[in-house]
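Input.
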Amino acid sequence: MPIVVVFLAVAAVSPVQKAEQLYQQARYEDALKALGTSCDSSTIRESEQTGCEKTRAFSLVALGREAEARAAFDRLLIKAPDADLGRDVSPKLQSMFSGAKRDLAQVMALQIEPVNPGPAGPNGMAPWPLTVRPPADLSLASVRAYVASASSTRYAEIVMHEQNGTWLGMYDPQGDNTSPRYYLVATLGSGIDVQIGDSMASKALVVSAGGDPIDYDPEGFAAPHAVPDRLSATKRSGNDDRIAGLPKWAFWTVVGGSAVLVTVAVILVASRGNGTDNGAVKVGLSFQ
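Output.
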């Protein structure tokens, strides 16, 4: 009688799947142990990293460790900004997740305000003041700017300092201010770093004058504006106090392209004779 050997293939359960099962069983500490210390470890498949952070956050909230849970949500959203928890979650989890999503969107919109360079010092260009102004409801632990000129591949790190909700720093262009560009790294209140741009996708640093961004058309400065012929025809004589022979005390205007000398005679009539209005002022104009 032939012997039939049957091999049963048993699919291995991933750490994330195991943690999800433990969470459903309200074994929250065991769920965290199954996930390990990091969802970025080699034991977690890349396709399961967001699920890992989600299960970690859920388990931490259940244990009352909300600050750690918020950090897990932050990491989840950095990996998948469009992630959604769905409807079958508690209002507490949904509120925390929505707050993390709002903060991340605000962080990604951060930028350095237009720079108004100060006057150059005796040794060259003055340092440039950098300002990052986050929304009032966004809490950040730190902000760092990385700035480089177009002629350099090395980004200078500027550690910014918070002052009344605004982050300030100084950049030394070291004599090279050609098309500066930058990216930012902001640390959330949870301690998670968020990078806004990078060396391959940096932003242009806008340079302003007098507090307003410089906006001009270089072509408009290629040559002086042309002077109309009718004005260029006016020449000064040898005496600078006279214009084309006109006396110093006279003035002229242009009417239809011709110079007209106007002499204004004001006649005050105070008589009360017949046919004359009492106290009337009559103005007579004569043209020469």
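Residues 6-10, 210-288 have pLDDT under 50 and may be disordered.
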